[in-house]
Design a protein that fits this description.
By secondary structure, this protein is an alpha+beta fold. The protein is globular, with a radius of gyration of 25 Å. The protein starts with a strand and ends in a 10-residue tail after the last strand. The active site is at 158 (proton donor), 234 (nucleophile).
Length: 581
């Protein structure tokens, strides 16, 4: 069998120098019926390797409940890489960042506040041991020395930016090796001396993450690792978007020129991203560097392949550069046709808060947090029946957004992003409901692993409000509550489900126009496309063709804030927002 190794200056494949020309494709962000297409387009651009993270939180949504179905079938993805004649890099973390909810760490792990985060704490390490055993059971038989495609695996992820626990990294290394991993193990950090020093350990090969000034970045890496192959295992060719910001892009010619410098140094590379894909469902994370900023549903990343898998100008610019260092296939991808368009009326269905009454309730004195009620909930609905004069409602801290509903009418919204904690409310004649929305867990930095909910209690004019009934709603509960369509109108009120039926002649990809919607979640034929929000930047949701069927299809929306138009509309191309304000 072939062997992949670390040489003094190069990666070695059976003793011969081998440059890794890789591109990132996250299998969990791409419909599995599209995997082969995306991998093939990577090869046609001139790449020889595909890299992916492994999301622990998606594979194990609840303790001991491991899944490898559908978008999470890592084995099938790696076999698709091999079938295209390419190699693979697998990065299972356990922490991956990736702008994914909680950085890929399962929320249930931190229900106990004493559990360590990315350090050698026994409970944390015990959970990691089980996780890596399962991942390695998939990957080990698919390593190159056993006839498979996997040539490298990464331990942790940009650890030098977070911690300084060499023993923790060594323990993880032992776990990989103890589970049959024989290929070289790597780390990645930004090429800052202090990060590189803290982010690796003996037996691990350092690589760097950056998106510009390749020459200088590689010099820093070489200073801290005098021998072995140079590699940028995250060459940032674009960037992600957050709700309320502009759509981030980089110039194709400038990114290609810097890639040329990197390859001219003899370095290996992994393009982050080659194809970004989509944060389907409610999987996107958030950043918090003083202001909480949830990540958009689109993970287009301004990558060489766009969110729908179509080559961009950057694809062709990168292909030209790669052709200077490797033989290019004669075949090129076919041009993409405009997506089918059309529209259908949206009809009101169940009122969200009323439908939620069908779920089991938790009775508590104080409002419970998500960890106390249900760690994987999308929403917590707190309800209290009482009477009160008009006053000021205050909460300790909002994580992340709260609809305040008095006697069935929404009277305001409190937002974590805006640091809001107080709202004047009218007299309460019967009930106060607080719908708390989890907009995505922080995926990077010191707030990793934090709880969600109303932290610090609820007060009215300074008096504690106690005696609450709470219902937790997971993503899987929402669609079941939608009910049948029974109303029409020119607009949609807030906190309501809506349905629409539309015809499709074929299973071509589509783009759902969200410009005339408010804030909510969309499904087509039971497949959760993700969140939408009028604040942008993105104005469309990507609809993978495989979720459609010839003939009648059904869309369901959960509209939270209210929409000015009750129309489901498909447009010919994606709209990811303005490039600057």
């Amino acid at each position: 069998m072939s062997r992949f190794a670390i040489g003094e200056h190069d990666f070695l494949l059976d003793g011969e120098p081998r440059r890794v020309l890789s591109g990132a494709i996250h299998y969990f962000r791409v419909h599995p019926d599209h995997w082969t297409d995306r991998i093939r387009k990577a090869r046609l651009m001139g790449l020889n390797t595909v890299e992916t993270y492994v999301p622990w939180n998606l594979h194990e949504p609840r303790p001991g409940e491991w899944t490898e179905a559908g978008r999470l079938d890592l084995r099938r993805f790696l076999e698709a890489v091999a079938a295209e004649g390419m190699h693979a890099i697998v990065r299972p973390g356990p922490y991956i960042c990736a702008e994914l909810d909680n950085g890929g760490l399962p929320a249930w792990l931190f229900a106990d506040p004493e559990v360590g985060v990315r350090r050698g704490e026994p409970t944390f390490l015990a959970a990691i041991a089980t996780y890596l055993e399962r991942v390695c059971a998939v990957v080990a038989p698919l390593q190159i020395d056993r006839g498979g495609p996997v040539v490298l695996m990464q331990v942790e992820n940009e650890y030098g930016a977070y911690g300084d626990d060499t023993a923790y990294l060594e323990t993880l290394t032992d776990m990989f090796r103890g589970n049959g991993i024989t290929v070289p193990l790597t780390t990645v950090d930004q090429p800052e001396p202090w990060m590189l020093k803290r982010g690796s350990a003996p037996g691990l090969h350092m690589t760097a993450s950056f998106g510009s000034r390749s020459d200088a970045r590689l010099d820093v890496l070489r200073e801290h690792q005098p021998t072995g192959p140079l590699m940028s295992s995250e060459y940032w060719d674009g960037w992600f978007d957050s709700w309320g910001t502009h759509h981030h892009t980089t110039k194709a010619d400038e990114a290609a020129a810097d890639l040329d410098v990197l390859l001219g140094r003899g370095a290996s590379v992994n393009l982050y991203m080659f194809h970004g894909g989509t944060n389907f469902g409610l999987t996107s994370g958030a950043n918090d560097k003083g202001t909480y900023m949830p990540i958009t549903t689109s993970y287009d990343y301004d990558a060489p392949l766009d969110e729908a898998g179509r080559p961009t100008a950057k694809y062709w610019a990168f292909r030209e550069v790669l052709g200077r260092y490797a033989e290019l296939p004669a075949e090129v991808p076919d041009p993409a046709a405009p997506a089918p368009t059309g529209e259908a009326p949206l009809r009101r269905a169940a009122a969200f808060l009323d439908a939620a009454q069908a779920l089991d309730a938790l009775e508590t004195a104080e409002v419970p947090s998500f960890a106390q009620a249900r760690h994987d909930a999308a929403f917590l609905l707190h309800e209290k029946h009482f009477t009160a004069e008009a006053g000021v409602l205050t909460v300790g801290e909002v994580r992340d957004r709260v609809h305040v509903v008095v006697d069935g009418t929404t009277v305001g919204v409190l937002s974590r992003e805006l640091h809001q904690r107080a709202l004047a409310i009218p007299p309460v004649a019967s009930s106060l409901r607080l719908l708390v929305e989890n907009q995505g867990r922080v995926n990077y930095g010191p707030r990793l692993g934090e709880d969600k909910g109303l932290v610090g209690g609820v007060r009215l004019d300074g008096r504690d409000l106690t005696g609450w009934t709470t219902r937790a709603l997971g993503e899987g509960d929402l669609l079941a509550l939608a009910g049948e369509a029974d109303g029409t109108g020119p607009a949609l009120p807030g906190l309501v489900f809506a349905r629409a039926e539309f015809e499709a002649e074929d299973a071509a990809d589509r783009f759902l126009d969200t410009a005339a919607l408010g804030k909510g979640i969309a499904w087509i034929n039971g497949f959760c496309l993700g969140r939408y929000w009028s604040r942008g930047p993105q104005r469309t949701l990507y609809v993978p063709g495989p979720v459609l069927r010839a003939g009648r299809n059904e869309a369901v929306l959960l509209e939270l804030d209210g929409a000015p138009e009750a129309v489901l509309r498909f447009v010919a191309a994606p709209e990811l927002g303005p490039l600057e304000f």
